[in-house]
Amino acid sequence: MEKDRTCNLPFGDAFRPNNGLLSGDTPETSSSFPYLPIDAATTDFPPSEYNYKFKPPFHYATSSSSTQNPSILRKTSSTMAAQWLFCNALIALLILFIAPHLSKSDDRSTPSPGFAYSWMDDDDEFYPGDIATIKVKILGNYQSEEYRYPFNPNITVNGTMGNSSYVTDVHSDFGNDTNNWRILFKPIMVGLFYVVIDEEHFRVHDNSLHFHVSPAESNIPPHFIFRWLNYKSEFRAGEIATIQVIVFENFNTKTYKYPFNPNITLSDYSGKNEKMGNSSYITGVSYTLGPDTNKWELHFMPIMVGTFHVLITQENLNVFDASMSFSVTPAFIYKPAGTVSWRGECNHFVAGTTAKIMVLPKDAFGNNATRKSEGSNVIFDIYATTEKGEDAKVLDVSQNGWNRFGGLSTNFIAATSGNLLLHVKDKNQHLIGSPLTFTVDPGALDVGNCVPHWGIESKSFQIFSIMETFITQRDKYGNLIPGFYPFDFDVIEKGRYLSLPIGDLKYQEVVPGVQSLSFKLLQHGEFSLIITDKDKKKQILNMPYEFSIYIGES
């Protein structure tokens, strides 16, 4: 029986009947699909020896059917055109979506930089537990933002990737500074090992490195004991503190890759506020670690007063010693570092009263000095000036030594009135806080210290003329006292001790602290003028003042 060989031809116009045209179409009106014309008269298709039944994927109407139903032709042509447009739109969307992702490449489109690898310090010999470091050098231009994936190589040691029985703690240090890129790990097995570095995205494969791990000669860790040189654990600030390092015999400097180079950490008395190395506690940290281990020493200079604990550590030699402590007292006083202030925060005085200041002395490192560190004989230069730089009087300066507050007390008598500056110095160098500002008001009026000044430098006056004097009102220290003070006066005739009659008596304040006294002379003769307080108990300076009154022209 002959097999029925049915051919389902592929979709397309190439196999349309009637030369690839739909019924009713012409080459000009057919769809834009390419086609291969098939001439039934000249082409033996399907071959006569086969019994093919042509089954197109779409129903194509015959001439008779298209005549009977022309809408079928239009519908079929429109469906194919819509499918073609859909396929093209889908391709365009795919290209639009994928194209941006092709711009960054792990994908070979952007040239990858080269990488070179070498051992840090050319050191490829290690002991178990050492840190092995591989330097990564970039050959060419590397900008991380141009690549979709970061540079993240795999490390394989003797065929095993990453952490293994050969190495542990495998990690990379790829910071912003590409000149300092490193790959690190710890060898843990003794032997000779080969390293392969590969990275898929950057086409990296490097097998140029190998390393050797030797067993330690001794499993017993070195042992150290620390103690103060000459058992001295008390120091003045600024002294050198020395710690002896006692090394046991089992320590061989050639056995251990790392030298003895410990860290010194200090904490305060409470065990808090730890600070390593040079700090506000100590400075000048140094070591004496020569070939002779019997002379190994650690040195530093304490600079802060207090009691401190010492911690000595070095991880790779298992050093951890917290057995030591020491105390620090202040150094000798450095006078310019002292701080001066008013006691009681009072800087306003009346002339004649006692002013008090306190100096808080310090050493050169800023520690408060004490009586114990310095003794009681601490003297400073103390004087006062006006704001214009003129000398002002301070009397009875008394430097009284240490007080119960830990400072040096000084007292003096404020004499000159006004707004003043108090200078506290040591050899022309001001203490901190100097000069201090202060104000002095005049004291009480001292009649015996008031001074008369005559308007006319003459002791002879014509009768009926005006005699005038100016009285300067002063306190005990010569400060002008403003205001109007009621003086009393008498004019007495010589020899008879009778008071002279006067007229037009006037008192008035000329300027603050100076008043004028004037009167008319009504009788000729020889007289004395006496100016006193209102109780007539005390005269002003330069009394009595003797003068004469004449008649007629002089």
UniProtKB/TrEMBL annotation:
Task: Specify one Pfam family.
Answer: Ig_GEX2_N
Give all residue intervals belonging to the GEX2 N-terminal Ig-like domain.
Answer: 113-213, 222-328, 336-440
Extract the signal peptide range: none
Keyword Repeat annotated = yes
Note the InterPro entries from the entry: Filamin, Ig-like_fold, Ig_GEX2_N
Q: Which domain of life is it from?
A: Eukaryota
For this UniProt record, the keywords arranged alphabetically read as follows: Membrane, Repeat, Transmembrane, Transmembrane helix
* Sequence intervals crossing the membrane: 81-102
Q: Does the keyword Cell cycle apply?
A: no
The record's PANTHER family line, in alphabetical order, gives: FILAMIN-A (PTHR38537:SF8), JITTERBUG, ISOFORM N (PTHR38537)
Name under which the protein is recorded: GEX2 N-terminal Ig-like domain-containing protein
Q: What is the lineage of its organism?
A: Eukaryota, Viridiplantae, Streptophyta, Embryophyta, Tracheophyta
